[in-house]
Design goal:
- The chain is mainly beta.
- It has one domain.
- Strand 1 and strand 2 form a beta hairpin.
- It has no helices and 4 strands.
- Strands 1-2-3-4 form a 4-stranded antiparallel β-sheet, with no helix packed on it.
Length: 68
């Protein structure tokens, strides 16, 4: 199993035949990590370009987080 995923954004365009298409532009990579203390997983998103921040870290929701 890979420890990373390619992060992309969809970009719509019209090809020479007039058809609307979508390509996916790479903007970074997301990495799976393991916490040293309890072995729980979390993810880091590394962006290829600065947009106020260059890294976001995602954790699974905890039992005390509100469920949408």
């Amino acid at each position: 199993m890979t420890n990373h995923y390619v992060a992309t954004v969809p970009v719509k365009f019209t090809d020479p035949d007039g058809q609307e298409r979508t390509r996916f532009q790479r903007v970074g990579a997301m990495f799976r990590n393991t916490r040293n203390g309890d072995g729980s997983e979390f993810f880091s998103l590394k962006l290829d370009f600065p947009v106020a921040v260059t890294e976001l870290v995602m954790f699974p929701p905890s039992a005390k987080d509100p469920q949408d």
